[in-house]
Amino acid sequence: MNSTLLKQAALSYHANPRPGKISVAPTKELADAKSLTLAYSPGVAHACEAIAADPVAAERLTSRANLVAVITNGTAVLGLGDIGPLASKPVMEGKACLFKKFADIDVFDLEIAENDPDLLIDTIVRLEPTFGGINLEDIKAPECFYIERQLRERMRIPIFHDDQHGTAIIVGAGILNALSLAGKDIDKVNVAVSGAGAAAIACLDLLVSLGLDRRNIKVCDSRGVIYRGRDANMEPNKARYQADTNDRTLAEAMAGADVFLGLSQGGVVTREMVARMARDPIVFALANPLPEILPEDVHAIRPDAIVATGRSDYPNQINNVLCFPYIFRGALDVGATTINEAMKLACVNAIAQLARQPMADSATGESALTRARLIPSPFDPRLAAWLAPAVAAAAMASGVARRPLTNLDRYREGMAHIGREAS
Ligand SMILES: NC(=O)C1=CN([C@@H]2O[C@H](COP(=O)(O)OP(=O)(O)OC[C@H]3O[C@@H](n4cnc5c(N)ncnc54)[C@H](OP(=O)(O)O)[C@@H]3O)[C@@H](O)[C@H]2O)C=CC1
Ligand SMILES: CC(=O)C(=O)O
Ligand SMILES: [Mg+2]
């Protein structure tokens, strides 16, 4: 679809037949005076009193345990930048739809007009009685790191900045599979990165925990390569990735690199830069909505490249939609108090392994992993049954589950049903 048609279709999709993408629906019969008596006054008072006597009763008597807040202040909306909370609402409604569609989780999207990190934190902390979990979205770096850390310390429900960890999880799975196709080892490859914000820093942290050598990483922000000694007071997260190098530009950083990871802005990579990468280059151009370089431009200059973008209109969509519905599903279902490293790594492995399984409809039984299919499609009906139980099991094994499951196989069957309904 050309860009004019896409714009028209997207605006019409959002406007018709009624504005927006989500609504709230009752889950109980409410047809007569008797059901009104139960749902509202006087019957509702009994539910209130039960929760006042024992807060855990809220899990049985309200929607809270299946209700997640998608929260933003609109400071880093996709790659569009600081467009503010109101303009971010279509993205947040979109996330709400994806939670519901893929994992049957209800979401309130909250666009908060507050840029001061401490005031935003205080606002979010006060929402704990309403929600079973908090998905932070499109809050810019470096504030996002402080905001998430404070919330994790002050709240007893899962807090997950999707642009950091959801992206890192799917990038981790995609890179592991791409490296295996390219026949390269993670501890030996050179990586050039465009972007040093929420998503890029979290991806690097996870890739390092998977074996990537920090000395083989060169990161660029909007001012070029982050090299040792560049700034007197370098932001601490950038400082962790400052390189001992004479390279100063992204073009120099990409020369000879095995992997390019783009989490910055559309169009910052040229064909010439890709031409100078190592053999079988892995190009993850993940800026949204426009990637750092389009796949057709990469393939035109490097037929040996393995390419991914964040978009659904090209093969290999590396997008956090493959993670956030399922990591929350697993966490909520065991009453996890947090989403920890063990749960994230379980999710990475589950995605990477699922991509290696034969497709359900495969006649040959061959592995589905190819250069054009590094990771499962967002509509793969097996995602819920693979990811949510892996996350739930990791939560239980790492001691953060308040309501451990007694039968993981039965839980997996329930997730398979959700997956089939979604696809
Ligand atoms: N595919 C996916 O699933 C996801 C994709 N993304 C995409 O990643 C991008 C960044 O998102 P996020 O990390 O949340 O945003 P942040 O605002 O936290 O970070 C943006 C980073 O990009 C850098 N940057 C801006 N312009 C350039 C440039 N011309 N060259 C190099 N670096 C540049 C900024 O540099 P500086 O520090 O100097 O300001 C900053 O480090 C967006 O396009 C977003 O859509 C994000 C999450 C998931
Ligand atoms: C996908 C996503 O979360 C982003 O581009 O910000
Ligand atoms: Mg985002």
Automatic annotation (TrEMBL):
Active site: Y40 (proton donor), K95 (proton acceptor)
Domain Malic enzyme NAD-binding stretches: 164-396
Protein origin, superkingdom: Bacteria
Presence of keyword Oxidoreductase: yes
Pfam family, one: Malic_M
Gene3D superfamilies per the UniProt record, alphabetical: Malic enzyme, N-terminal domain (3.40.50.10380), NAD(P)-binding Rossmann-like Domain (3.40.50.720)
Cofactor, free-text remark: Divalent metal cations. Prefers magnesium or manganese.
Chain positions recorded as a divalent metal cation binding sites: E137, D138, D163
Keywords carried by this UniProt record: Metal-binding, Oxidoreductase
Presence of the UniProt keyword Methyltransferase in the record: no
Malic enzyme N-terminal domain segment(s): 19-152
Entry binding sites for (S)-malate: N288, N319
SUPFAM superfamilies in the record: Aminoacid dehydrogenase-like, N-terminal domain, NAD(P)-binding Rossmann-fold domains
Cofactor(s) needed by this chain: Mg(2+); Mn(2+)
Gene Ontology molecular functions: malic enzyme activity; metal ion binding; NAD binding; oxidoreductase activity, acting on the CH-OH group of donors, NAD or NADP as acceptor
Annotated family: Belongs to the malic enzymes family.
PANTHER family the UniProt entry points to: NADP-DEPENDENT MALIC ENZYME
Protein name: Malic enzyme
Lineage per the UniProt record: Bacteria, Pseudomonadati, Pseudomonadota, Betaproteobacteria, Burkholderiales
